[in-house]
Design goal:
This protein is an alpha+beta fold. Helix content is 33%, strand content 35%. Strand 8 (173-193) and strand 9 (198-223) form a beta hairpin. The longest helix is centred in the first third of the chain and has 18 residues, at 75-92. The two termini are 31 Å apart.
């Protein structure tokens, strides 16, 4: 199932001549799916002159996956994300001989692999001695690994949407209210050369994503200031209060790692030689 940002990027919802039907359909769609904005980029990319596509094709690469300096990633999820990283690199660089974290774990021993990942999560680098120890049991020359450096979830934002008519500084009609939660992540990417015992690639990936939910509301006769607005509904018996930061419209869950991390993997793999 595609995310809403991917869906809306390829499907234009145009219903000429019936604007109310358009908004009703849009509101129902967004309420059901949850709108998502997304962006990712990689900066400060540094590549060693000897780290070439030819060298990787000749030597091979281990896709160790991703660890986090912010919050521990479970062993099960770590293995899953490592497989996603491997498949992402494979799709962008089909000539690379790649092995997964699980294959490398069989060579190192599961306990040693978990210790290795925990070390990288804590320190953010591999020492020359560690690389030497890996090279003695793992056949590929290169190791690729990413590390979550920052993971920030912002406070929810409530925003009136669609038809807004202002008269004497007051909003007189609101057809929908959107609530969104933004998540920002910074992820370092690295490739190590086991043969040389040093890092040969580095970069910092920034990812932003938004989970959004839109609630249809039909409200008229707004009174009060911007911080405490009360609305009279078409059905007076249902008198409800609309607060831009209130609890009437619960926020969606923040964008998930399994949505955001694959975009980081793609940004990384596209910069490989």
């Amino acid at each position: 199932m595609p995310s809403t940002c991917e869906y809306l990027g390829t499907h234009k919802m145009l219903i000429p001549g019936n604007r109310s039907l358009f908004w009703a359909g849009t509101i129902m769609f967004l309420a059901a799916w949850g709108a998502t904005g997304c962006s990712s980029n990689i900066q400060n990319v540094k590549k060693d002159a000897g780290f070439t596509g030819k060298a990787v094709v000749s030597g091979g690469m281990v896709a160790l996956g991703v660890v986090s300096a912010v919050e521990e990633i479970s062993d099960a999820k770590s293995s899953q994300f490592a497989n996603v990283l491997r498949e992402t690199i494979k799709s962008d660089r089909p000539g690379y001989p790649l092995i997964s974290q699980s294959e490398a774990s069989q060579a190192l021993g599961e306990g040693k692999m978990q210790a290795l990942l925990r070390q990288y999560a804590a320190e953010g680098s591999f020492s020359k001695d560690t690389l030497l120890a890996i090279s003695e049991v793992v056949r590929p020359r290169y190791v690729a690994i990413l590390r979550v450096e920052k993971d920030m979830v912002e406070s929810p934002q409530w925003v009136p949407q669609d038809e807004i008519i202002e008269r004497s500084g007051e909003i007189t009609s609101v057809e929908a209210v959107a609530v969104w939660v933004d998540r920002h992540m910074e992820i370092s990417a690295a490739v190590y050369d086991l043969k040389e015992g040093r890092q040969v690639f580095s970069g910092l990936i920034s990812i932003w994503d938004r989970a959004e939910k839109t609630y249809p509301v039909h409200t008229y006769g707004v009174r009060g200031d911007d911080e405490d607005q009360s609305l009279e509904l078409e059905e007076p018996k249902k008198q409800e209060v609309f607060l831009p930061r209130g609890r009437s419209y619960p926020p969606p869950a923040p964008p998930r790692l399994n949505i955001m991390l694959p975009r980081a993997f793609r940004a990384f793999s596209e910069k490989l030689p």
